[in-house]
Amino acid sequence: MTLVKKKVPLRKCSGCSQMKPKRELVRVVKAPDKQDENGEVIEKGGISLDLTGKRPGRGAYVCRSLECLKLARKARRLERSLSCSIPEDVYNSMEEELKASEQ
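Given the sequence above, the corresponding structure tokens read:
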């Protein structure tokens, strides 16, 4: 009987650019835009941390450290990955969420 090894999904951190197992990273998600029946955008999708990894939307990954989030913020890698601009207050709230999840 042979044991089948499960393939571990790898993702690249937007801060340090290292490939790591998906479970070790935090997903930053841009929620889909809300549209009316004519297809016109009613409300833009928000950007937030997805600690569960199950929210719908476009995602990018970052290590569970403030240093990696700050590196990604400085180089605007998250904005490039999510194809939108991210306001300063959203970055600040993501930093607070990361601090709270580290403890």
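DSSP finds three helices and seven strands in the chain. Try to locate this feature in the token string yourself.
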